[in-house]
Amino acid sequence: MRKILFIISLFTFTAASAQVAKWVIHPSYEHIRMLGDGYYIVSQGDKYGILDATEKEIVPLQYDSISPFNSHMGLLFNEGKCIGYTSDKGEIHEFTAHQYKLGSMSRFSDGYLAVHNSTGYWYVRAEDGSAIGPYAYASPFCEGYAWVRVPKSLKHVLDGGYTYDVIDAKTGQSAELNLGEEYDKEDIDFISASSNGTCIIVLKKRFFIYDYRKGTLTPMSTDNNPENKKTRVTANERPVKVNTEEKGYSITCKQGVMTFDHLMRLTGIGYTGQPSRRIDVPREKQPDPKSTIKAIVYNGTQLLGLQCEGKEVLPAQFDDVTKVWGNEALVKQKGKFGVVSIDPNVSCRFVLNEGLDIGFEHKTAKSNIKVICPPNMTLSLMTLTSAEDNCRINIDTRRENVNVETAVLSYETTFNIPEDIGLEPTPSTIKFSLNYDGLKFTPAIIPYNKWYINNYEAKMLSHQIVGSVLTAEIVIRNTGQRDGMNYFRDVNIEAEDSVVCSFSKMTEESYTARMFGWTHPTVRFNVDITEDGCPTISYPFEVSVRGGSSSTKENEKENGEDKKPSVVNATGKVKKKAKSKSQPKKEEKKLLFVPK
Q: pTM above the 0.90 mark?
C-alpha cells in the first residue's frame, strides 16, 4: 500500500508555483510618472529626471519640472522657463541660443513643437532641434497638418494683412491643397485644424469642408445639400473673427455658430432654427494599456496588496496603489513611490523534498526546499522563510545555483513531527514565504505526503499459565537503521477487561508481563511503545486462558466454542489520544404558563 501511495505522490505532490514580482523602480522617489516603453519621470527632492527600466538615469535629476510626453518628447523647465526638451531616451536639446518661448499649447505633436521669439513663430523639429518658419502664427499639428498665418504678400508684412497656409508634417513644407480653379491660398479667410482627416476652410466668406485624404472641397449647407446656393453657409465678414471661449473657440456665421476645441478642431454646429450637432473629435490621449493587476484591500489594515489575473501575488505591504499600466503598478511604500512589475507568464516553482513523501523516524525529519526561478532573478536578493512553526529552515545550508535556464535557491529543512501523523502516507501542506529585493510574496502552499516510519516490532516469544497467573515473555526490537544516537523510548503493557497486569524489564529488548483476575476465556493486552516526542504505537495480543485456574462459571458457559489462537506477531497501530468524556447535558427546566 505504501509503495502505491508513494508513486501517486511523486506525480501529485511535487511542487507549487507562484507568480513573480519585482521592483522596476525602487521606492525612493517623491513622484513618478510612467511614460510607457520602459521610461519614467521621477523626482527626488525638488528636482526631476528620467530613469529607464534598469533604473539608469538617462536624464539627470536637475530640472524643476518635465512636461508630459508627446511624440516621445518632453519639455524641460528651470526657473519657470522652458530651456529645451528631451526624448524619453535621454537625448537633450536646449533652446538657450534662440530664446524660444512656448505658445498656449506647450507640447510636441507629430514631431514638432510650436514656439515663438522676437522674430515670429517657428516649429522646432523633435528629431534634430532645427526650426522651420517664421510665421505670423503657428498652431499645433493635428493628424499630420498644422495651419499657420502668413502675410498675403511681401507688402503686407508691415500692414498686417495675412492669409492662411497648411504645413505638412512629413515634409515640413506647405501642403498642396486642391482648392479648384476659383480659389487659391490667398483667398483663405479661416482654416481649422484637421479632425478625422477633414478641416473647415472659409474661402471668400464661404464655408467648405476640405478632405486631406481625398483632396476634395465640399461646400457647407444648412440642409446638407451643397448644390443649394440659398442654404450655403457664409461668414459675416473678412477676415473671419475667431472668438475665444472657455473650452476653445467659436465662429459666428450668418446661419449660426460653429464651436472648436483648444486645438481648433470642429466640435459642434448650431444653425439657427435647427438642433445643435455635436462633432466627435479623436482622443488626444491614448488609453493606458490594459492590465490584469489590481490592488487588494484587506480588512483590519490600511496597507494594500497586489493580485494578478485574480490571484494574490503580494500581500498587504503598500501605502497606496495609484496606477496600473500593463504589467506594472505604481505603488507607494513607507511614503515613497516605486514601480512593481508582475509577469503572469513567469513564475517561481517550489519543490519540497525532491517531490518525495516525508517520513518521520523520530520527532523530527530532515528534508529540503528548492525555489526554481527565472535566470534573470538575482538570488543574492532572495530569502526564503517557513510560514509555519513546525518547519525550520537551516540558514547555514543555503545553496545557490544559476545557469542559462534557471536560478535555484535551496535550503535543508527540519520538520517537527505532526500530532495527527499515522503509519500510512496522508496528505498535508506546508507554507513557505519568498522575499525578493524587499518585496514580500504571498506564501506558497506546497502539498506533500507524511507518515511515521515505525522502526519497532513487538513479539510474544512464549506464555504459560501457572495457577491463576498468566506469564508472557515479550521481545521488542528496533528494526530500523540507527544513526548512532540513542533515542529514549517508553514501554507500557496494559491488559483489557479489568485484568490485573504488571510487567518488568529483563533486558534492553525483553519484558515479562504477569496477569491474573481474568473473567473471560481470552486475555487481551497491548504493548505500547512511545519514542520521545513521537506517537504511541500499540501492539495488541490475546491469549486463550480456557481451563485456567482463574476461569469462572461464566467462562464455562462458552459451550466449547473455538477461540483465536495466541497472537505471536502483532501489527502496530498509532494509538489515538483519549478524548475527555463530555459531561451529560442537564435537562433544561421549562417554565409552564397556566392561564388563570
A: no
